[in-house]
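Worked Example 4.2. Consider the chain below.
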Amino acid sequence: MQKRVSELFTQSFGSEPKIITRAPGRIEFIGNHTDYNGGTVLGAAVDCGLWVAVSPRSDGRRRWRSAIGDTVVETGEALTKLEGHSSWINYPQGVIDAMQAHGLEIPGGFDYAVESDLPVGAGLSSSAAIELSSALAFLELTGQEVDREKLVKIGRKAENDFVGVPCGILDQGVSGFGKRDHLVFIDCRGPDFSTVPMPGGAHFWIFNTHTKHALVDGLYEARHTECMAAAADLGVKQLADASLELFRQEMHKLSPTVAKRARHIIEEIDRVGKTITAMEAQDLDAVGRNLTASHRSSQHAFENSTPELDSLVDQLTTMAGVYGARLTGGGFGGAVMALTDARFGAAEADQVAQVYRSRWGADPQVLHMRTGDGAEVIQSNQA
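Applying the procedure from the previous section yields the following structure tokens:
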């Protein structure tokens, strides 16, 4: 990928890039929509992501090129939200806006190219990957360093305030703090970040349905609003502050829909804790049960699943070698993650795909993924 992004940059701008950075996508392991509710979450950085190549310009022009487009887009130093095929530029522009808000020097003109081996729309957070890889590139351009916590906060602020998605810290936190053969644990009230070793012999399989996964279209925002209403009705600042006992005592104050949303979040936070305990005991069967329970709660209480995702979980959880399965990411389409042992391989994955095809008339994208390291600077030659 380093060679590919460098070649794209050279093809687009006529010179080699000075700086190359990368940031991984992530799997939301468990902790669905708990992050913006102040809860806990487990995620895994994966071994694919986005690569950014940049070089400074002295004329204030900013030129942008994505591997999925065939033209260079030019903007000035003023930050203006773009639409249509150029809307991806809002993510790195949001990073510049967030850097300025954090009191950091922002880059002037530059040439910028981005390449990816991360499937779009699979719920693996290409948005966080482009935010963190862009932030590292812009910091390197301006000769600045920040700690890892500030880096992920810059990425989150870009998405919340400039792009307009009210996400929590999960995506950026996992992309920033990822570590091979580990999960990233986030207590979102700090936020505090740590890593948890993955038990040996565990495999991740992703089944991308290619169904709609557009968080900006209002569904994500609606759930966010419902969760905030639930916290207010329960008399707590965030749903993470509400125990199951409090919820049961006070749920009569909530509308039926808001009560379902609150139940999912409060029980999901409890499942995160149980999953960590099970991992420490090397009990992958218990981990798998928690994953599947998480999906059923998303399906029936939070209602951010889809029939396509549900059918994948239904099938996967009957197969040998599968510990558990759940939707991964914001939901409303996207992908299912299955945690398996070595008995589940390519032949079994193809069997799942065939059943899905016969039911839905489309082929899911199947990915056998591994954990990977967090965002990093790959090359810096500014001398």
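The radius of gyration is 21 Å. The chain has two domains: 2-197+373-380, 203-369. Compare this with Example 4.1 before moving on.
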